[in-house]
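Page 37, top half.
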Amino acid sequence: MYAVKQVSTLTGVSEATLRVWERRYGIVQPARSPGGYRQYDDDQVATLRAMAALVHDGVPASIAARTLLGSDVRPRVATAGTDGASFDLVSAATLLDPGLIHAVLADAFAASTFDVVVDCWLPSELKRLGEAWEGGSLTVAQEHFASAAVTRHLAARFEDVPPQGGAPVLVGLPQGGRHEVMLMAFAACLRREGVNAIYLGADVPLGDWSMVASEVGARVAVLGVHLDADVSPAQAVVDELSALRPPVTVRVGGRNRHLIRGARQLEDRVSQAAAAIARDLRAGAA
């Protein structure tokens, strides 16, 4: 059990604010010592840390409290990423705890090879995140919090492998495209295959694709095409890069990749897709 002064130190929230959150929002209900002093348990401290993180990120305290009170906090604290087998991204997202979600990701990647994690565990967890958001058990903020954490983790893996020589491969999303988690995983796989991958990221304007391709001498570009709204901008990129002299070969991945004309479709598993591109580049058939 923790005294209010200890909880203030653990959460970075003043004692006065902790009392206001308790009285005004009912975010926690601490026990009382025989002398009448507040006593907080581990789960209540975790809830207050999550509340502090939300407020720090600009979420009004009233909304932060409603978000957390609507979550099944206690079992999530007990199970998220701590048993060495169940690396639960959704539970970590619910608490909005940066330390916890980092631990979940670090444990998941330490438990298996990079390829297995990005081919199997990560797509499954991202699907669960989407289903939790659609079902109302995760807020937009919680889903974005988790996706951003995964993207940062993958970006660090991408940067861990120095850029290689050889013809660069551009990797990005068309204008308006936002779903970049698995694309970042793919770019990291390319780097690990020894490919000189240049990651352009999300929402890349049409004109920038041909400009960058011409400047760096790229002969291959990879696009993610996930939503219906991504199809038209992606097709425009394919058409523009195909019109360059010499043309840039485009490969497409994502749920709507089959709707793009003039581009080769990537395999579902990102590690296998990256390995195929690496083989083609080595054979001069990209």
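Page 37, bottom half:
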Amino acid sequence: MSVDLLKPTEIGKELEERLFELKQALLKVKKRLENAPSGHLKLSRKKTHTEFYHITQRGASRGTYIAKKNRPLAAQLAQKEYDRRLLTEIPKEIRALENFLKQTDNLSHLPKIYESLCTERRGLTTPLTLTKEQFAAQWKAVTWKGRDFQDEDKKLLTANGETVRSKSEVIIADTLHHMGIPYRYEFPLKIKKSPSETRTFYPDFLCLNLRTRQEFYWEHFGLMSSPGYANNAIGKINLYAYNGFFPGQNLIITFEAGDEKFDTQIVEKMIQTYLI
């Protein structure tokens, strides 16, 4: 099985966002300096307090004392000196980022090497970073055994041909399928209940974010209006946390209870937030 020797990166996008923010910040700093008062601030530290002075003449060692009622002036002068330093440093970072992104073709130069190969050469070559299609195919090729169905269990068919246990699971599975998200139904997960005790969970879904290669377990709790069920659900969520699975990081949790119905829109928002 081939693996990513170099995982996909979002650094290029992050650097572009950083570059944009730096340029916006530079404009604001320049605007503040245009409106800043003349002169600079001098601090004189006493035993019990610090005094502020406004220096307006070059070479002067002592300027005009800034009384408490004029403290905004001291703040403006302090801000001015800080902004002048920013005015020197921000352009340096802007130039460094622009040069880096230009030299690396916005970090797209490595993937383009594989993309430039003809179809036959691609078939003989393993890229440094697998394409989404290659990674998805290998991820979906894994086999496993889920929980056995009992006679009293519901057996509902998804668009992808799996048998699941509830209408809500059908909604999740079908939405994942239609939005192109690879998933595994009831993929077994070893969970520690304590340092010495382990049990096997069968999370509803294990999903893959192809962009980041990150896996998310997805648990749907569908009977939260039942006190006993809700109590068990809380215990399960706590066990996930004990084992390093946290909502929003590597765990997706959805609920329904009573009149609070579960629908495709909720699933789509979860997928767009964590899996695309």
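Margin note: The CA atoms of residues 29 and 86 lie 8 Å apart.
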